[in-house]
Request: fold
Amino acid sequence: MDEIKLPDIQNEYLNNSKVANYISTNQGLIDQDICLELATIPKKNIYVLVNLYSDEKLTLSNPNISPYDMAVMDAAFTLLSNGATAFTPEMIVRTMSGNMEQKVTPQKIGAVTRSLNKLKFIRIRIDCTDEMIARKKIKKGQTSSMESYLMPLDEVEVKLGNQKIMKGYSFSKYPVLYTYAINIGQIISVPRTLLETKGALSDTDEAVVLKRYLIKRIEVMKNDKNNSRSRRITYEWYDKKDDKKKGMFHSLGYKPEEFSNWKKKKSNIHNDVKSILAVFVKEKYIKAFSEVKEGKSINGIDITL
Reply:
C-alpha cells in the first residue's frame, strides 16, 4: 500500500464547459427519458447531446447535481492533474477551499463523502460529434461520443504520512466530463492563492462554491474568444423568453422561500462577494469592482478587468 499525501498544488483546475455548468445549475435532469440538447456554438447552430442516468445503487432522495458537487469534481480533477493516484475526502476539502492547512471538520468530510458517493453512481453520456467536427477535432463522417460515471471512482484503503490507514478513492478511468472540456479548451487554470481567502471570510461550503462561481464568470469575461461583452454579475433577473428566473442566486440554488429573512441573506451573500473580490484585486486577478444598484437595492457587481 503506497503512502499518499496532498500534492503541492500551485494551480487549480475548473471545468467551465457549458455542459458542466448546465448540469450543475439545473434540476430534474437525471433518469429522464429525454436527451438534453445544449447549444455549445450557437452561431453555427451546433449542439451536444447529453444523457444523465443513475445506477440502481443510488438511493439518495435528491440525486440532482449541485454547484457543490461540481466543486468536489473540480477538486478531484485538480488532485488527479497534480499526480495524486488516490485521495481522501480531507484532501478534497482542502483543495476545494485552496487552504491546504485548514482544519477539516467531520461535517466537511461528511459532505464531501456524500457527494463522491453520489457522483460515482451517476453516469453521463456526451455525444459531441457536431461540435468536434465544427472545431476540426474530427473529420466529417467520424463520430465522437463518450460515457463514464461523473466520478468513476474505486474505494480503496490508503496510508497517510502518519501511517494511519483510512478509506480513500482512486480513479478507475478518466472522467469524460473532463475529457470533453479538455478537448474543447474549457478547462480553466487559476492560481490556488485566488481560492485561499482565509482571513477574508471563513471557508464554509457556501463560500467555496461562491468563490468558484465568481472565478468561472470572470474567466468568461477574460476570454476574448467569447461573444460575451458583459462585465456584470447580476444577482437576480427574469428571462421573459425562457419564462424563468436567472442570475447568480438562481445558478447557485438559492430559493427565497427557504430563508426566514431573504433580504438579510442576500445582504450576507453580497458581503461575501465583496470580500472574495477584494482578494481577487489584491492578487491582481481583477483591477476593481463596483456595486450595481436597482433603485435602493444592490443587484449585482460590475467587474473591471
The chain has a mean pLDDT of 93. DSSP finds nine helices and 13 strands in the chain.
